[in-house]
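Ticket #4471: structure output looks truncated?

Reporter: J.K.
Steps to reproduce: submitted the chain below (187 residues) through the standard prediction queue, then opened the result file.
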Amino acid sequence: MENQNEKVKKSFKNLGQIKKSLKDLFIVPNEVVGINKFYLLLSTFFGCGYFRFASGTFASIVAAIIGFVFISFSHIALFILIMILLVIGFISADKSIIETNNDPSFVVIDEVVGQLIPFLLIGSQSFLINLLMSILALVIFRILDIYKPWIIGKAETSFKGGIAIMMDDILAGVFTLFIIFIILLFV
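Returned output as attached by the reporter:
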């Protein structure tokens, strides 16, 4: 009987450690204060931004999966989705800025919009080519978004508020689209 109680206590201790590990891995929504929960839900792209480490990359991976699914059905639907997310992104990103004019790491709707843009060109090839182009688009977009070369970096500092948050990722998505276009010319 005592052995069984020790196992139960050990299980609860392990659960406590798992909870602590998860708390270290994700931003707890209560840590983000002063933001309307609706705008927070949208700007974090339904919680993707709560991932504490590389939240932008995590959101880009989610967006790439969404983009890959959409190209199987309709590029028009993908375009409409991008336009809707663009409007939502400008508004929710602007509302999610906390007392500063910077780009909070939990705001990832900008990465989602930027990552979806190159998928407008992917989809008319074979499944394997589409998959490879999708992965390549993800890698190129992340490189451009992280390093922000040339006009991409300038866009982030030239604007304020939600436009500044969104604009660098939109440009990174457009540049990724052009790079994918050039690659597809040779495939």
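Triage note (M.O.): checked the attachment and the full token line is present. Helices lie at 2-25, 37-43, 55-71, 75-95, 109-116, 127-147, 151-158, 161-185.
Status: closed, working as intended.
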